[in-house]
Amino acid sequence: MKKLQIIIAFFSGGCMMFCILAFTNKKQTEPYILQHEKDIAIQQPGPHDGGGTTTAYPFFENIKNFKMAFRKRVLRPGSSIGYHLQETDEVYYILNGTGEMKMNGDSFAVKAGDAVLTRPGSSHGLKPMGNEDLTVIISYQLR
């Protein structure tokens, strides 16, 4: 009888532990996360000492175990993303406006529909041209 009670207790404990782990894992993994840019918009100076006024949209910034940066940034005239050394692959996708990308000492024009991949070890910066905003999506892997 005592042996049967031990087996039942062991089996019950195992079932309970399985349920706890299954529920915990399921709860941590959400099928999707929706964020609205109006809820996360923040006014900031241009990153990497770029100065001026920008609006940043740091999507999914506070999501645990998410290893990717995905940001929208609106660069106002007179602002910029300062010239800096890149440590990981990074993609800049121009949504609207025109800008000047400085890459490893050379400069070139970018416009809506352009995508620029900056590789590790490259230095780059970005600024809007003229009197219009430059809107860009920036994505890179977090370390």
Structural class: alpha+beta
The CATH topology of the largest domain corresponds to Jelly Rolls
**Major β-sheet strand ordering:** 1-2-3-10-5-8
Portion of residues in beta strands equals 35-45%
Give the helix tally.
2
The gross shape turns out to be globular
Number of domains in the coordinates? Answer: 2
Low-confidence stretches: 4-23
Q: What kind of sheet is the major sheet?
A: 6 strands, antiparallel
CATH architectural category of the largest domain: Sandwich
Order of helices and strands: HHEEEEEEEEEE
How would you describe this structure in keywords?
22% helix; 45% strand; 2 domains; alpha+beta; globular; 143 residues; Jelly Rolls; single chain; six-stranded antiparallel β-sheet; 2 helices; four-stranded antiparallel β-sheet
Give a quick summary of the entry:
Helix content is 22%, strand content 45%. It is of the alpha+beta class. The strands form two sheets. A six-stranded antiparallel β-sheet has the order 1-2-3-10-5-8. Strands 4-9-6-7 form a four-stranded antiparallel β-sheet, with no helix packed on it.
Topology (SSEs and partners):
Elements: H1 2-28, H2 37-40, E1 42-46, E2 51-59, E3 68-75, E4 81-85, E5 90-96, E6 98-103, E7 106-111, E8 115-118, E9 123-128, E10 134-141
Antiparallel strand pairs: 1-2, 2-3, 3-10, 4-9, 5-8, 5-10, 6-7, 6-9
Q: Could you explain the architecture of this structure?
A:
With 143 residues, the chain is of the alpha+beta class. It has 2 helices and 10 strands. It has helices at 2-28, 37-40; strands at residues 42-46, 51-59, 68-75, 81-85, 90-96, 98-103, 106-111, 115-118, 123-128, 134-141. The strands form 2 sheets. It has a 6-stranded antiparallel β-sheet. Strands 4-9-6-7 form a 4-stranded antiparallel β-sheet, with no helix packed on it. A hairpin with a 4-residue loop joins strand 1 (42-46) and strand 2. The longest helix is centred in the first third of the chain and has 27 residues, at 2-28. The relative contact order is 0.18. Mean pLDDT is 86; it is low at 4-23.
